[in-house]
Specification:
single chain; mainly alpha; 10 helices; elongated
């Protein structure tokens, strides 16, 4: 679970409710007409803007903003460096079985393409094409919540206009002015809360996680191509360390220099 997302949204609502309760009863902020206008209008307008399948997946998309499944780029780089070392000692075909044990499907695909003898240009093209489609899928999920964040205040304003019309039409009936004014103000309130405390934060978190995943996959592409080129593990490591912040670079394991012990097939590590 992503603690930042959960803590931010929950804390925001707690502070909001606290501020609302200081001025009187919370029931004054409840109006069923305002709920239907704001939330219902936002959902129906969003439904009109996207394919049905994309709209129905909105909850599973939102779940990604609250999950904390993060790829450790430092560990990925260590794995790539180990693969580079093994490829130099035993050849690319020796990586076939090790690729099956990888949890990262993108890295696994890249290693298998290399083992199968695919040309470097085609390897890069295949991986970058997959990366582009990943980015497009992520962008669609982000745009759903950005659209909802744009529609919510608009429907809040629409509810305000409806409430004002009801109020002005019934100026000769004092008992109708209160409900009309409540609808006018509360609907704008609902629209602002829905947009700024739910939809837009989720869209921003999805955008951040998408950028991080794409960045990690770009590092994997460079690592896979370095393995295929037969680069020295130290060169591979230094190349991939440029993808990390200075503090993260300390987590990278220093590769061993390997030499054969005379009269033996067992390699000896030299630190």
């Amino acid at each position: 679970m992503d603690r930042a997302s959960v803590t931010g949204i929950v804390s925001g609502f707690i502070l909001l409710v606290w501020g609302m309760s200081n001025g009187g009863s919370l029931t004054m902020f409840w109006d069923i007409s305002s709920v239907l206008i704001t939330i219902g209008g936002t959902l129906t307008a969003t439904l009109s803007s996207y394919p049905l399948g994309t709209f129905l997946d909105v909850m599973s998309i939102a779940k990604n903003a609250f999950t904390s499944v993060q790829q450790d780029l430092s560990e990925t780089i260590n794995t790539i460096v180990r693969f580079a070392d093994k490829a130099r000692r035993e050849g690319l075909l020796a990586l076939d079985e090790d690729a099956d044990a990888l949890d990262d499907m993108f890295l696994q695909k890249g290693i298998r393409l290399v083992v199968d003898g695919t040309t470097p240009e085609l390897v890069r093209n295949i991986l970058e094409t997959e990366l582009a489609f990943v980015a497009q899928r992520h962008k669609t999920g982000q745009s759903v919540f950005e659209t909802m964040g744009a529609f919510a205040p608009a429907f809040g304003m629409l509810g305000t206009l409806i409430g004002l019309i009801q109020m002005l039409v019934n100026l000769d009936s004092p008992e109708a002015i209160g409900p009309g004014m409540a609808t006018a103000l509360v609907t704008t309130f609902y629209g602002s809360v829905l947009a700024n405390m739910v939809c837009l934060p989720i869209a921003n978190k999805l955008k951040t996680k998408s950028a991080e995943e794409i960045y990690n996959k770009e590092a994997i592409i460079e690592g896979v191509l370095s393995i295929q080129a037969g680069d020295n593990p130290r060169i591979v490591q230094e190349k991939l360390k440029s993808f990390l912040a200075p503090k993260q670079r300390e987590e990278i394991t220093r590769p061993s220099r390997v030499r054969e012990v005379p009269g033996s097939e067992i390699p000896m590590d030299i630190r």
